[in-house]
Design a protein that fits this description.
Elements lengths: L1 E5 L5 H10 L4 E5 L8 H9 L7 E3 L5 E3 L1 H11 L10 H25 L9 H20 L15 H9 L5 H8 L1 H11 L5 H6 L9
Parallel strand pairs: 1-2
Antiparallel strand pairs: 1-3, 3-4
Helix pairs in contact: 1-3, 1-6, 4-5, 6-8, 7-8
C-alpha cells in the first residue's frame, strides 16, 4: 500500500484527494512539524532529502514526490480523470497542471517561509507574493469553462487542485467575490460523496460538528 507523508490541509491534501478519487488505497502519516528541526523532519528527510510534502512511499519501496508527477502516475491507472487524448481539453489540462505547480506553488514557498529568502525584506516579500497570487487566480478564472468543472462536463484532477487550493489563501470570501468560477468548481467537488471523509480530515469542508 502507498504511504502518504503529509500534513492535514497542506499540499499533501491534493494527493490524498486524487488517490481517493482514483480508488487507490493508501495510508497517511502526519509529519506536522517537518519544517522545523526534530524527529518529524528527520523521518521525512530520510525519504526525501528536500523535506517536502507530499512524499509518497510506494508499495515497492520507491519514493514519489511532486503533485504533478503524482497526478500523472494516477492517470496511468485511472485515465478518465483527465480529458481524452488528442482533444483541446487534454492540452489545456496538461498546460494548467504544470502552470499551477510552476506559478502558484512558489507564492506559498516564498510567502510561508520568507526568512529563508531575505534577511531584511520579509514583510515586503510576503505582501508581494500574496498580491501576485491573486493575479494568478484571476488569470486562471478566465481560462476555465466551469460547466460544472474546470474543463467542462467531466471531473478531472485539475478540479482537485482547485478544490483544495480554494481553502488556502486568499481564502473563501476572496474567491467567492473575485473568482466565481473557481469558487463554484470547488463547491461542486465538495459534493462528491466519496470525498467527504478526506475533505473533512484535511479541514477543507467542515466536520460533522463544524
Amino acid at each position: 500500500m502507498i504511504t502518504v507523508y503529509g500534513v492535514p490541509g497542506w499540499g499533501s491534501a491534493i494527493s490524498e484527494v486524487m488517490l481517493t478519487l482514483a480508488k487507490i488505497p493508501y495510508k497517511f502519516v502526519d509529519v506536522a512539524g517537518f519544517d522545523q528541526p526534530g524527529p518529524q523532519q528527520d523521518a521525512l528527510s530520510a525519504l526525501n532529502p528536500l523535506c517536502q510534502i507530499p512524499t509518497l512511499k510506494m508499495t515497492d519501496g520507491s519514493v514519489m514526490t511532486e503533485t504533478a508527477a503524482i497526478a500523472l502516475m494516477i492517470l496511468d491507472e485511472y485515465p478518465t480523470l483527465a480529458p481524452p487524448p488528442d482533444t483541446p481539453q487534454r492540452r489545456q489540462f496538461q498546460r494548467l497542471l504544470i502552470w499551477l505547480v510552476a506559478n502558484v506553488y512558489p507564492t506559498f514557498t516564498y510567502a510561508d517561509y520568507p526568512e529563508r529568502w531575505t534577511e531584511t525584506g520579509a514583510r515586503e516579500l510576503v505582501e508581494s507574493c500574496h498580491k501576485y497570487r491573486k493575479t494568478l487566480y484571476l488569470w486562471l478564472e478566465n481560462q476555465l469553462a466551469a460547466a460544472p468543472y474546470a474543463l467542462g462536463e467531466h471531473l478531472t484532477l485539475i478540479d482537485v487542485y482547485i478544490a483544495v487550493m480554494r481553502s488556502w489563501g486568499p481564502r473563501h470570501d476572496w474567491f467567492k467575490a473575485n473568482t466565481p468560477k473557481l469558487y463554484a468548481i470547488a463547491e461542486t467537488v465538495y459534493q462528491h460523496p466519496e470525498l467527504q471523509d478526506v475533505l473533512r480530515r484535511n479541514d477543507i469542508i467542515p466536520g460533522t460538528n463544524g
